[in-house]
Amino acid sequence: MRIRPSLLAAGLLTSTLALTGPTAHAAGAAAPYDFNGDGYRDLAIGAPGATVAGKAKAGAVTVVYGGSTGPGTARYRLLTQNTTGVPDSAETGDGFGTAVASADLNKDGYADLVVGTPGEDRGGDTDDGMIQVVWGGKSGLSGSLTLLGGGSDTDRLGQALAIGDFDDNGRIDVAAGGRGVVDLTVLQGPYTRAGGADGGVRAASMANAPKPFDPAYGVEYLSAGDINGEGFDSLIVHGRKKGTDDALTAVADTRVIDFLNWMEYVPGGYVSAVGDVTKDGRADILIGNHREPSADPSGALGGRATLVLGAPESQWVSGQFMAAITQDASGVPGAAESGDGFGGGVAIGDFTGDGYGDLAVGAPYESFGGAEDTGTVTLLRGTGAGYLPTGARVLSQSTSGVPDGAESGDRFGARVLLSDTTKDGRADLSVGGTGENGGDGAIWWLKSATTSGAKSFGPAKFGIPTTGSPSFGSPLRG
C-alpha cells in the first residue's frame, strides 16, 4: 500500500519554501472560463507574438464568449497590457498571453482569467516574468491585478499556468512555471480584488527533485486535476531532464511541504490534458510527446500520446494502466511517419455525451497532398477501459466541412481543446493552427467535434495586427 506523504511529519527543506499559512475561505460555484456568468464556457486565446502599439511580441489575449451557436466574432474581449485597468504597459518581448488559466478566484460567481507574461522586465532585470488576473463580471472581463512578479531567483515566471485546489483545503491555488533557481510557484487563496493572493506563496526548485529538472528550461507546461478522486488536485509538471533537452514529466502532490521527494514520474511529454476518460470519478492524464526517439527517449516514431489512468490515493499513479497511442496503434487511422508531431496537442472532453471523456490528439507536422506541416487532429472515444480502438476519426483542413484549405506550415492541431461552449452536454472541438498564414495563427471551432456548422477565425477578426508572427491560438483554453 502506498503511504501518502500527507500522513507523514515533514519539515521544511531547502527545495521548498513556505512563506505564509493559508486561512479558511468558502468555495464558489462558478465554472472556469465562464467570465460573464451566463453558463456558457468562453474561449481564451493567446497571441504571445502579437505586436501592440508597435511593440513586437508584446502579446495579447482574446476572450471569445460562448453561446448557443458557439463562439464567434461578434462577442469578444481583446486584452493587452495597454488595456485600460491592466497594470504595466505593453513592451517589446513581454509575451503577454504565453499561458492562460481560469477559475473564480474571488468567489463572486464569475470566472476570472489569469495571464502569464514571462518576458516582462522588472527592476532592471530582464525576463523576470509576471502573472496577472483579469476579473470576470456580469459584463465580462474588466479590471486587473498583478498577482506576482518574478525576482532574482526566478526568470520567465508565467511561462506555464494551472489552477486547482492543490493543498486540499477547499481554496483555489494558482501554480506558475518559470526558469531559474525557483521554477515552480504556487499562490494560495483566498484572493481579493484589492490584495491578490492572501493565503501565501510557496516556491520550489525542480532541480532539487529526485529526477532533477534543468533550470535552463524550467517548468514549461502545467496541467491539473483530481486524479485520485479525493477532492483535491494534483499538478502535472513538464520540463527537461537536467543536462539534456529530454522531456521529464512528474505528478506532484503539493499538500505537503516536501512534495518534491514524493513526486511520481510518468512518461515524458511536453503537454498534457486531464479529464475523466473512464467515468470512474478520477481524472486521467493524456501526455503528448511530438518528438522522435532519436531526439527524445520518451518519444516515438511520428510522436505519441500516453494515457495514464487515475488511481485511488492509496496507490501510485505511475503504477496504473498506461496506453501508448501512436499512428501505428490498432484502430488509429494513418501510419506513423517521422516528423508528424503526433501528440503536439492533446485534449480530453466528452464530445459524444455518454459520460466518458474522449481524446483529441494533434499532429501539427503531418504532411499530405504535397503540402508540408499542414496538420491533423485524431479523435478517439473514451471507455471504461481507456479508449476505444475503433471508430477513430481524423480531421484536417482538407476534411469536407472544415473551413479554409490545408497549406504548408499551417500546423493545424498544434493546440486542441475539448470544452462545452454551447451548454448542450457535449464537448466542442477547438483547434489551433499556430502557423496559419505565415505565423498569424487561427482557430477552428467544431460543434461536438463534427464538421456541421464549423467556424474559423484569425487574429485580424479581433483587431490583432498580423505584423510579425502573432501565433494566435498558442495557448488555447476554455
Description:
- There is one protein chain.
- By secondary structure, this protein is mainly β.
- The chain has one helix and 33 strands.
- The chain has one helix spanning 436-439; strands at 16-18, 43-47, 60-64, 76-79, 99-103, 112-116, 130-134, 144-149, 155-164, 173-179, 184-188, 191-192, 196-197, 201-204, 221-225, 234-240, 247-252, 264-266, 271-275, 284-289, 304-308, 322-325, 345-349, 358-363, 376-380, 382-383, 386-387, 393-395, 412-419, 428-433, 442-446, 455-457, 476-477.
- It has a five-stranded antiparallel beta sheet with strand order 1-14-11-10-9, with no helix packed on it.
- Strand 19 (271-275) and strand 20 form a beta hairpin.
- The longest helix is centred in the last third of the chain and has 4 residues, at 436-439.
- The radius of gyration is 20 Å and the shape is globular.
- Residues 1-27 have low confidence and may be disordered.
- It holds the Pfam family FG-GAP.
- Residues 457-478 are annotated as: Disordered.
- This is Integrin-like protein.
